Structure formats: C-alpha cells, structure tokens
Amino acid sequence: MPSTIVDVQMTVGDVMIRPATAADAGGIREIRNDAILTSTAIWTGITQSMSEAAAWVDEHLERDSMVVAECDGFVLGYGCWAPWRAKEGYRFTAEDSVYLADGHRGRGIGALLLNAVIASARAAGMHTMIADIEAGNLASIALHQRLGFETIGTVKQAGTKFDRWLDLTILQLML
Ligand SMILES: CC(C)(COP(=O)(O)OP(=O)(O)OC[C@H]1O[C@@H](n2cnc3c(N)ncnc32)[C@H](O)[C@@H]1OP(=O)(O)O)[C@@H](O)C(=O)NCCC(=O)NCCS
C-alpha cells in the first residue's frame, strides 16, 4: 500500500523529515520519556519501557501516522496523530503530538513535523485535528496557531502533575 507520509518527505538543511520506522522506537522513546520526566507536556509520570514504546510506534506505523526529524542518523524529534477519542463516532477526528529533543527547539523543525502530520491525517481522510495542550506551553500553542489552528478554549484544572493543577487549552484545525 502506498505510504501517505512518504509524499511529504523532505530535507531542510541537515534535517530530514521522513516516515518513522520500527527502528526509530528507541530514539522516540528517549524523547518521550524525557518529556514525561521533566515537563507538563504529557500528563503522566510513568515512562515507557522499550517494549511499550515499540508497540506504541507500531500502532502508528499501521495507520501511517508518525514522522521523525532525523539528522546524522539521530532522531531529533517526532510527530504523530492518533484518534482523539476511542468511540467510533469520533473516527474522523485526529489528535496530534509533536516533540523535539532539548537543544533542537526553536529552529523550525516542529513546524516541519506538524505540517507532515497534518498532510498525513488529510491523506488518511481525517476531517479535523485537535491539539490538547497544557495552557502554559506557549511554544506549542504558538506552533499550532502558526499552522492555522484556532484556539477553542481552556478547561481549567483538567489535570494534575508535579503537585499542581494543570489547565488544558484545546486548539483545532479543520482538515
Ligand atoms: C512545542 C515544540 C514542538 C515546538 O517546536 P519548535 O521546533 O521549537 O517550533 P518552531 O521553531 O517550528 O516554531 C514554530 C512557531 O512557534 C513559535 N515558537 C516556538 N517556540 C516558541 C516559544 N518558546 N515561545 C513563543 N513562540 C514560540 C515560533 O516563533 C514559530 O512561529 P513563527 O514561524 O511565526 O516564528 C517544541 O518546542 C518542543 O518539542 N517542546 C517540548 C515538547 C512539547 O511541549 N511538545 C508539545 C506538547 S503539546
């Protein structure tokens, strides 16, 4: 079956945006676990084991919904989409995620990844994309607004981590 993401593969400077493969699971896990341990971007403190990370990446590979940013053989970041909610009535609504390793942010790579994720969701026939973002995550909110997402609103104290309440800002892009 032709890949929907391959169509948006590109190289910008020394960074290549390409579809993820199973071999990227270790690099993706490292970035994801760092965000789990050090930030409020992911609302859990439970890190992924290698087998959990491989299974999670595989789920995305099956729906062709994950891209990575690679430089010199290293995964600098990843972007993906997945169903926003499990019930079948939500099946045309995707939720996106974009994560870069510390030290590689603010260079435009997040925008390249999110553009590729949007293109993939469109190609898969998704109707709309939602971003659930911790209200204080100004970089992620700016990234999404830059790519055309509209701010829908903020749910106050929707979650908790590091012994404080977290507000959830919801943004949406019609695909
Ligand atoms: C959020 C994240 C993916 C953004 O990726 P990035 O590569 O740093 O962003 P880009 O360089 O592509 O910037 C995209 C836009 O957002 C803006 N932006 C980026 N970082 C910003 C910041 N800290 N504050 C304000 N605006 C910011 C940029 O100015 C740019 O807009 P412009 O083109 O009008 O200048 C990245 O910062 C990251 O990985 N953060 C940690 C993980 C995370 O929070 N992920 C999102 C979870 S919801």
UniProtKB/TrEMBL annotation:
Pfam families: Acetyltransf_1. The keyword Acyltransferase applies. Coiled coil: none annotated. It comes from the Bacteria. Transmembrane segments: none annotated. Keywords: Acyltransferase, Transferase. Gene3D superfamilies: 3.40.630.30. InterPro entries: Acyl_CoA_acyltransferase, GNAT_dom. This is L-methionine sulfoximine N-acetyltransferase. It comes from Gryllotalpicola daejeonensis.
